[in-house]
Known about the structure:
By secondary structure, the chain is α+β, with helices and mostly antiparallel strands. It is built from five helices and nine strands, in the order βββββαβααβββαα. It has one domain (23-192): 3-Layer(bba) Sandwich (Chalcone isomerase).
Amino acid sequence: xxxxxxxxxxxxxxxxxxxxxxxxxxxxxxxxxxxxxxxxxxxxxxxxxxxxxxxxxxxxxxxxxxxxxxxxxxxxxxxxxxxxxxxxxxxxxxxxxxxxxxxxxxxxxxxxxxxxxxxxxxxxxxxxxxxxxxxxxxxxxxxxxxxxxxxxxxxxxxxxxxxxxxxxxxxxxxxxxxxxxxxxxxxxxxxxxxxxx
Length: 197
């Protein structure tokens, strides 16, 4: 059964412009991503390392910068391994422009459906729709999508709203949007794995 956690008490720690931390820039954007971040939940902190960055554009307009992080010490060699890894990992989106919540919801739904049928995730897609429909994202807002091993995906519009969707297969479907066979663009896919070793 899927249970949600709205405005939860889960503690999230993220170092975006950490003092002294190494950062990576993204061409055409003022956004800089830290090479390592900390994710904290239930009193436990896990370090994640950057695997790459990319820009999501639509009609030649930048929509958001995106970075992918994977649990530090986990050796992954490909996009498929990232999708299937049941470890802490995070997609961090930083908005480059304002997007209406309904448009954001529609875009995520349509992106999941690039690789899956709607009937595979009816409840999960509705929960994700509701998350974005309830808020407006503006330039500079951060959207964090964090896979929690054995649980599912914690979705958060920082300082606004959050939800945990307890389905690890749906979490994989979110990563497939960017790294799967049918994705939002080869440039994004290549960018997000550019720092894999």
